[in-house]
Amino acid sequence: MSLDQFLTRLDQLQSDAESAFTSASDAAALEEARVTFLGAKKGQLKDIQKMLGGIEKADKPAAGAKLNAVKSAINAAFEDAQQNLSGGDDSGADPTFDPTLPGTRPSLGHIHPITQTISHLTEIMGRMGFEVAEGPEVEDPWHNFVALNIPEDHPARDPLDNFYLATAKDPSGKSSVSAGDEGSQLLRSQTSTVQIRVMKQVEPPIRIISLGRVYRPDAPDATHFPMFHQMEGLLVDTNVTMANLKTVLRVFANNYLGEDVEIRFRPSFFPFTEPSVEVDFLWNGTWIEFGGAGMIDPNVFAAVGYDPEKVSGFAFGLGVERLCMRRHGITDIRDLYSGDLRFLKQF
Ligand code: DAH
């Protein structure tokens, strides 16, 4: 065999082997190709190597050099193909990677304790037939005050006690809003607004709860925060009595706080209920106030277009944080909103 022929066969072998390796689609096919070209006994490279003996002595160095070059090229092509098949990650070859070490688990978040509480309260009230209603957090004074029988001169409408918004009416951004300004929107100060929205929309009988954020400019301390949550309840039907109200709240308290929790009503005043009460639960030997309640004031029914002679109803508003804090032994409301994972991870 001439040197030229020998070199040509080697080139041919290299290109055959390279294309066989790159087209091998799995480990078995690659192994088959490896045996064909690099096999120690019958591999094609071995066959050609044997032909080296028939080359002219003077041509042998050139032939040998070419043979070695082709051999390493084919070996390299095989290794490349092998790496590609294993995802390009030759992890076994990396001395710093120990596949027997345990992996790093991705850390998962979880539902915030207040959201958990909201689900729990919704579930308890749902068993008594109360459906969830929602309302906007940015409200107009009609829903937040007027329809709820809160007159213009009522202290609850004071700009200092509410987050009024600097809207288009007040482009300067200055707080030129007066308490009676019907046009200025505000962050709702109570979820009682949802009572109005629901009654404007549907006819009795009504049995809803609404859980959500309310806003008041209070300085934060252990029991106050400028944003907190309320659970509003509203039931409208015929011949509704205060006994119905008390039963619903007692069953609620027994489900959420414990079978032995007792309930107490103290006379109070809210513009939208008559009579009005403060709601206390007896918890571990102390009476604790959880919110307000009462029978819907006829003026509220009139504001939404109901006939106060025909329908009656009760409403209540309880503090969600207060309930959650009592149940879980949380002593500082600010912990709920600090975003501190050491605190949040406990729930
Ligand atoms: N909206 C009252 C507040 O934020 C709580 C309240 C009292 C709600 C009596 C009611 C109610 O529905 O009947 O202080």
UniProtKB/TrEMBL annotation:
Its EC number is 6.1.1.20. It comes from the Bacteria. GO terms for cellular component: cytoplasm. It catalyses: tRNA(Phe) + L-phenylalanine + ATP = L-phenylalanyl-tRNA(Phe) + AMP + diphosphate + H(+). Keywords: Aminoacyl-tRNA synthetase, ATP-binding, Cytoplasm, Ligase, Magnesium, Metal-binding, Nucleotide-binding, Protein biosynthesis. Signal peptide: none annotated. This is Phenylalanine--tRNA ligase alpha subunit.
